[in-house]
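Running low. Got one?
___
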Amino acid sequence: MTHDSLTADSLKAFPLPVPHEGSKDERGSAFVLGGSKSVPGAALLAGIAALRAGAGKLKIATVESRAAGMGLAVPEAMVIDLPETPEGGVDGARASECLQKMAKGCDALLIGPGLTEDGPTTKLAVELLEALPDASFILDAAAVSGLAAHAAGVRRHGERLVITPHAGEMAQLLDRSRDAVEADPLDAALKAADLLHAVVVMKGAKTWIVDPQGARWLYEGGGVGLATSGSGDVLAGIVVGLLARGLAPLPAALWAVFLHGEAGKRLAASLGPVGFLARELSGEVPGLLRETGG
């Protein structure tokens, strides 16, 4: 089966919702669960990206030791402090009930950036997927690696799910070596989409986006500069912002990969091919949206 190239022209088949005058509720509510004592910035990067992608409202849930700082760093967000483990991660067992309550009514949830414990994070993600049947989800980083153990449950909700693994996380998900994933990333993405019935963004120098029906898209890459700390958190944030605006999982994934990559190209042109920061990517997104009709 052939693939489609992801370009501005190909995205015309997936028009973005047109923003209207009126309430911020019209553009949806995004919820980011992420961050830890040692990596609080991941949730910050993702949350700002969600707003830059056009989400109307934002909630960020993070560990209690970093919540106050998050509220000052992202004054646009409602920040929720969560019980913390001795190691500085989110205590999923104690946080689950609070999260279900605070995320109720949100249009899209992102789980994973900066969370440090794979097993508990995956378990918490699956619990929220079950508890919030009206929301779309994107799972990233620690929320992805252990999903195979919960595949049967995830498949029931896969039509509203995007996952965004890099090669290492995909290797854990499929129980393959990282070398095997890197040798054939498309095959890995197809296997994961079939396993979970979800849209898969297989990140890499070239990014594959596939859905459970076998559609496959290739983005040729935004340049080497995107291989920088925090870049994946920004991509995940763009996805959740677009999901909150009402896009279905496949269009949201396609648009997010394109916007993220094109932002990298613009920064490479203005600053240099390497050395720009992940935090700078989000600032390019509104202009790209304006130019592409979003």
Observations:
- The longest helix spans residues 249-271.
